[in-house]
Amino acid sequence: MTKARNLLVIMSDEHNPKIAGYAGDTVVATPHLDRLAARGTRFDAAYTPSPICVPARGAFATGQPVHRSRCWDNAIAYDGRMPSWHKALRDRGHHVASIGKLHFEGHPGQDYGFSEMILPMQITNGTGDVTMLLRDPTDVREAGARKLLAQSGPGESEYSIYDRRVAAAAQTWLRESAPRHTDKPWVLFVSMVSPHFPLTAPPEHYYRYADRDLPKPKLWDAPVEERLPHPWLRGYGHRSDHYRHFRSDDDLHRALAGYYGLVSFMDDHVGKILAALEAAGITDDTRVIYTSDHGDNLGSRGLWGKCTMYEESARIPLLMAGPDVPAATACPTPVTLCDVAATILDAVGAADAITELALPGESLLALAGAPPKDKAALSQLHTYCPNGVFMLRTLRHKYIHYVGAAPQLFDLEADPEELHDLAGDPAHAALLAALEARLRAMLDPETVDAEAIAAQSRKIDEYGGTERISQKERMAYTPPPVG
What we know:
The chain has helices at residues 31-38, 53-62, 66-69, 85-91, 142-150, 158-177, 203-206, 224-227, 231-240, 249-279, 311-314, 337-347, 352-356, 364-367, 429-442, 445-462, 466-470; strands spanning 6-13, 40-43, 46-47, 96-101, 116-121, 153-154, 187-195, 200-201, 286-292, 318-321, 329-331, 335-336, 377-381, 389-393, 397-402, 408-411. By secondary structure, the chain is an alpha/beta fold. Helix 2 (53-62) runs parallel beside helix 12 and helix 6 packs parallel to helix 10 (249-279).
């Protein structure tokens, strides 16, 4: 039985799981994450419930996959009505604090279940990026793509300034507020926005990489048919529009140095937060989880940002350390942020809420150090392109189901870079059918796709129709709160 302890959850935004020292990257400096991994367990097959911010965070809050949380895209966010792990804990007398990005609706009077919210970052104006409701393949998001490169380089952005405030508030909370909550274990959720673009990295971190040779992204120089072999991917690449703005290797290098710099900037804040935990004298009574909402393609196949089911985008970093967590251990069992939600409840002594909320997730505390489990991780995307995409990751394979298009199948043991799609190989027909059946046992892709499109259509009507929405600016990123 899990012994109840305090829990510190640190979430970054858009952290490619491969860009960390503990993950084998020989370029990036992440000493604090590396130490956390060394004293705990890393989950090497952890995935986002959706490779885009708002749906991923809605699933994390509710512990439910996207087709149940109904947070379909960046304009349909969590509104507090569905039960959440935070509300379940608060109802049981636990103090549950959040500091930083939430990406919920953010309307006055909405109760998300936290005991306190410090510096909350919600979707813009309570509506988010309404242009993402439009699944028009001809709608090219040129402005955001242009800004990604234009803003890459040394300096401070509103995001780096916001993260400094979030990290400072977390340190203060651990030193001053944590000692006051001793009746039951508390949860502190610290949510930063780095290394999400803009790729403007503070100079002390940017110049750690600007003068170094950085590895060129996978398939960067390949023709489009090789880079993006599936029609859905070519459609997404066309809409996201990043590749054509890079005119030289210098452009690419500047963007990569910006991202690497932001990862180190984020890692530096992780170190400060963990140092505050230790200085408060509560490390031995507190477990720590580090994760991200989704990854970043980071130039692989010419793509930036998220929204694909490739490992760079759909897989996430996930570390857990502290009392009763095996040290220097890797867990290969597939998990998602829905499992993290269940873990939070279990870790502080509220495992009964997992059943009460009918959560599909399983506590990481039960999986860490245990033999690999035949468990499937589910991710899904319902924006950008006309039809939905569903991903199922098992211990060895990844199955990607495109509604209305051919599937993809990868053997991640033999082909970790996902360069060889096995879906069309007759030798793998039985495996392909078995994985599709496993997905359909969890949900019906066509029905869920239709439900998402219907919900988006209602929102389009609510916001004045397709023509009016199509005239709005395509948001590059959500502005942080001021003041």
